[in-house]
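ugh ok fine here u go
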Amino acid sequence: MKKIMILICHYDNPEGLKASLMSIKEDFPVDVLVVDDGSVVPPDLKELKSIYKNGDIFIKYLPKNQGVGIATNLGLKKIIDWGYELTGRLDCGDRVYPNKYAIQIDYLKNNPQIKALGTWVNMVDMSGKSLFILKHPCRYSDIKNKIYLNSTFVNSSTIFYTEILQTVGLFPEKYHRNGEDYAFFFNVVEKYKCENLPKVLLDYEINPNSLSSKGRKQQVKARIKIIKEHFYWGWYPIYGILRNSILMYISREQTTFLKDILKK
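structure:
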């Protein structure tokens, strides 16, 4: 079985794609699958091979833009078929730190009960300026509770065993443009032990043109629906619905500003 393949879904962000690829620096092969989601100018495999030297790189093309959830599931199906033990997403523009995957794989090897592992991340603006450190809960017990408030994983920071997809399924496509990451990790957390490493191993780029910025209200609506799907009568589900109902009326820029103030 092959060790790890990282999935990058791309749509009209060639510079972000190159930056993400060039950030991968490991002492072992990390293969990459790029799924192009109907870009106006799709990336060229020959060019990417000249850039990426830390493993094999492949491209699959969608004929038209269908959303990151559809692109993700196409990629995951290929990764399963190709027999990779581990996988994870990396969004265009996000940059992993040197040896990130080695650190995570070593931790998973020493803690076989854990099936998905994320990290803390450095949130940066488009110029690379650090805004704040996002410290998601690390312990599984805290993750199980706090996922009712918001996602407890940064997608680009997280790797997981492909075998869990047989149980939890792929990214729920009914949320393929708004909440597929959150819905997927909610399903994973319900079935498997998951953790976050208390180490900053990724720069996450806050792009004002991304779906998570421009479609924020739709994402929060989807988040509320997902919480209701997993609802039970308890503090965290009730608080999660109330909290996200309030967030419907607060922009991402405002929440980022508040987090930046609190950091200082």
